[in-house]
Amino acid sequence: MEGYEGDSKKPVIILIHGMGMDRWIWEDPSRSRILGGSLPVSILVTREPSKKDYGYSDTHPRAPFPGITTGPPPRSLKTIFHDLRAEDYPVITWSQKRPVGPLEAAASELSGIVPVAKKLSLNGIILIGHSRGGLIARRYLTENDGMIKGLITISTPHSGSSIARLAEYISPIISAISPFLKTNASSSRLGTASKRVMDFLSSPGVRELLPDSGLFKDIPDQKLKGVFCMTVGGTSPSLVRVYRWKWETLREDSLIRWILAPEKIFSLPDILERIMPEALIPREIRPGFGDGLVTAESSKISWCDNHYTFPCNHAEILFNRRVRKTVLSAVSSMY
């Protein structure tokens, strides 16, 4: 657990990370990894590579780039954690001991964090949770002792997420290609990463988030007196984009101008539409309806005071300036 003391006259903020993550997703996203530690979180927020102009030449230039790329990551990633510290709010983050374990275990950990938070502020506590972190906060609120002033959830599946069922479609693909992933060190690492992805998708914590699981029956669906609630959701489902470099040429007289340009091969989860029956494609991965893991509809609590949606995927929503400004404004309004 890490804490920033800040101004004790302001409410203390407890930041709760999502499934499979750790406190670094708030403090230093460059250190945070996803899907069982397989990939850096930055892979979810890359941008399309720029074209590279090599000018005029009679011969084919040598490309200094690999054939495949996911695009350049941002130079730096900041979250609401950095905004809160800049405004001198007391802030607490912690890494859950079982990040893919049952939600009840994480809610129990939060119960141990709250007494520490009470020592940092004279003006109450605000819970901010990303993804499953929002459900952890709601589960704790069933034991609210009156110190909680606000609840803000970001891309939280309040009605569950059907993404857990993707393991049923991805598993056969992994099994089919696994014999080819043992030929060298690089492919072996890919095979290890694939296994981690499958282990993550089939973990108890992920399965618990299915809409028809019993988890949501244990979380009261009613507004708590004296607790301000704001929810935020995303509508851009594209999580990972993969490009290949292709040469484009322009002829002018006897000279050739060489330009190396990116061409998108596929993106996740868009490619799942090719392997899943149309009727079974979840709304979480449909443009305008979800952020790749959670639907915009599920990200909203029916009784919340305010709700906002942004054109972000499940990870981008943490770093987006407009989202952070909206969250900070809500925090400021609570004292």
Question: How would you explain this protein's 3D organization?
Answer:
The chain has a single domain (2-161, 213-332), classed as Alpha/Beta hydrolase fold, catalytic domain (Rossmann fold, 3-Layer(aba) Sandwich), CATH 3.40.50. Helices cover 25% and strands 22% of the residues. The chain is built from nine helices and 13 strands. The strands form three sheets. Strands 1-7-2-8-9-10-13 form a seven-stranded mixed beta sheet, sandwiched between helices. A hairpin with a 2-residue loop joins strand 11 and strand 12. Helix 3 packs across helix 4 and helix 5 (167-177) packs antiparallel against helix 6 (185-201). The longest helix is centred in the middle third of the chain and has 17 residues, at 185-201. It is globular and about 80 Å long.
Secondary-structure map:
Blueprint (H helix, E strand, L loop, with lengths): L1 E3 L7 E5 L7 H4 L5 E2 L4 E2 L11 E6 L10 E2 L10 H7 L4 E3 L9 H16 L6 E6 L1 H10 L6 E7 L12 H11 L7 H17 L2 H4 L20 E7 L5 E13 L2 E14 L37 E5 L5 H4 L1 H12 L3
